[in-house]
Amino acid sequence: MALPATERPDPRSETLDRWPMPAVLSALLEGQLAAVASVAPALPQLAAVVDAALPRLRAGGRIAYAGAGTSGRIAFQDGAELTPTFDWPRDRLAFFMAGGETALTRAVEGAEDDTESAARMVGEAEIGSDDVLFALAASGTTPFTRACVAATRAAGALTVGIACDPAAPLLAEAEFAIVAVTGPETPAGSTRMKAGTAQKVVLNLISTALMVGLGRTWRGRMVDMQATNAKLRRRAVRMVCELADCTAEVAEAALAQTGGRVKPALLVVLAGLDGTAAQSRLQTVGGDLRAALAG
Description:
Structural class: alpha/beta
CATH architecture of the largest domain: 3-Layer(aba) Sandwich
Keywords: Carbohydrate metabolism, Lyase
Strand content: 5-15%
Shape: globular
Protein name: N-acetylmuramic acid 6-phosphate etherase
Number of domains: 2
Number of helices: 12
GO molecular function, one term: ether hydrolase activity
Distance between the termini: 62 Å
CATH topology of the largest domain: Rossmann fold
GO biological process, one term: peptidoglycan turnover
Strand order of the largest sheet: 2-1-3-4-5
EC number: 4.2.1.126
Order of helices and strands: HHEHEHEHEHEHHHHHH
CATH superfamily of the largest domain: Glucose-6-phosphate isomerase like protein, domain 1
Number of strands: 5
């Protein structure tokens, strides 16, 4: 059986362990840059995925992730960051990690081959037709991840396979296929390198584009972020100052009325509403700040 492209040795790095350290680092950096560039040809497919996912998410669907090992950890990180960054509800996220959350910090023996646990996790999550699954596997052959795709697709969810080998079976089994061709790794088989970087870039682009499409940004700012520490509270004040062209004192007073939330604070300043009315107007228009300001 032929090795997946991501598992083949790169003949250029055959003597890697004898190179001077600057040359080793230069070769590794070259691989990272190539990984980022490998995503560019997939941009039309990424756009199609976002367009297909948005109606489901607007209807209340969840964003789900599936993966094993490095791919699973990258997927988990992407999803975990959506709540503090864009205020995406935690209960509208689902994670299918081979080996469970234990596998986020240490390897779990045989987890990536456990198709029964994949089907069980998907069943317990009660995946439905409005949900969207992003399934990651560098080689695209991982049994756990492919089983997650099969189960979620059977439940009517939108499935997106993300891999780094164009021959990956995962790509054929998901409704949408995203491939970033990263080729052999340096060192060989270390898919935490180029393949991992490419997968992270793909998820960064898709999840951020989804949040833009869902109205969770405005004028290029993360106006739905959660101001949960001193740095972020300062950022919230600065954001209101910039977007409403007001003083810090005005911004702080508006944010005090809205529990530190930027969107309703902007309505307080720009539309002359109080905090309660601002929150109510946003709910009426599904959180779309542009629509709230127009109405």
